[in-house]
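Teaching note: in complex prediction, the entire set of molecules is handled at once rather than each chain in isolation. The prompt given to students was simply: 'Predict the structure of this complex.' The entities are:
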Amino acid sequence: MSAMPGAGERVHAARARIETARDGGDVACQDLVEVVTDYLEGDLGEDATRRLEDHLALCTPCADYVAQVRITVHAARELAAGGPGLSAPVRTALLDAYRRATGT
Amino acid sequence: VTRTAPAREESSDAALLTALRSGDEAAFAGLVDRLSPGLLRVAQAWLSTRAAAEDVVQETWLTVITGLSGFEERSRLSTWVFGICINLARKSAAKERRTLPFSSLPSSSLPFSSLAPEDDTGPAVSADRFRPPGDPDWPRRWASVPRPWETDPAGRLLATETRQVLAEAMAVLPARQRLVVFLRDVHGLAAEEVSALLEVSPGNQRLLLHRGRSTLRATLERYLDPAT
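The expected output is the structure of the full assembly:
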């Protein structure tokens, strides 16, 4: 599955560099932003997760960045109720169908 | 960190299901009103018109009504409903493709499993925010740092205006990213559920989520902190 070479390879390369970083200070911020989703998804692997968390402990901008991603994810949930719904006739037809099916 | 639905929603599923099975019309109407806007948006990822999407959503609810008694609760109720909708939308799109000239279809109605070039929307953060790789002291470290956002509930982030910015940013994401972010982050489906529903590998599901979330974060940052 390499239909998305650019993004996929960028994440893959960032991940590989973080896995082989000497310590948290050796992790590049530019790599961290590419693996942040793998990290939040719990798919980063033990070594890279440790390096990344060591980095976050000493890099305030990266900690702020991860916080922003978390806030974005959290804020997206508020969009669930938004947008136009079904037209009135369709809605009425569905409630009728439900009433018939459940015999009320 | 596993992304799961809020406990409130999961614990209320059983009660809701009992109500739905016992003919509680208000409960059914509430569910229809809560999920239909999302179902319409999902259906439109495959279909060319709003009318076609509404047909699919109507058929989805009719299938739900018929299937209520047999629903085995192996997934959350909303996941089950979205799954029905996606399958019906796919079928309907296949029919549409046979009757309409290919060029009249939205590009988003292409099979989901083939990721498009449009999904490579560049790095998560623009390269000019970082020092160059050759920097003697801090290669590829932040040059223009992200600044903490005001997240006080009374603050700007949760304001209606901010939600609008986020909604607009979501609307212009490439179709596949939009669908993954929508199902994962807006509706709280789990990664495995979304991979299965959209027939996309776990790796590509994660990549689409990454691209989409990165773009949304960048848009919010430009809005909340225009100086960056």
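Point out the following to students. Confidence is low (pLDDT under 50) at residues 1-8, 102-110 of chain B. The helical segments of chain B are 7-21, 25-44, 50-67, 77-99, 160-171, 175-186, 191-198, 202-224.
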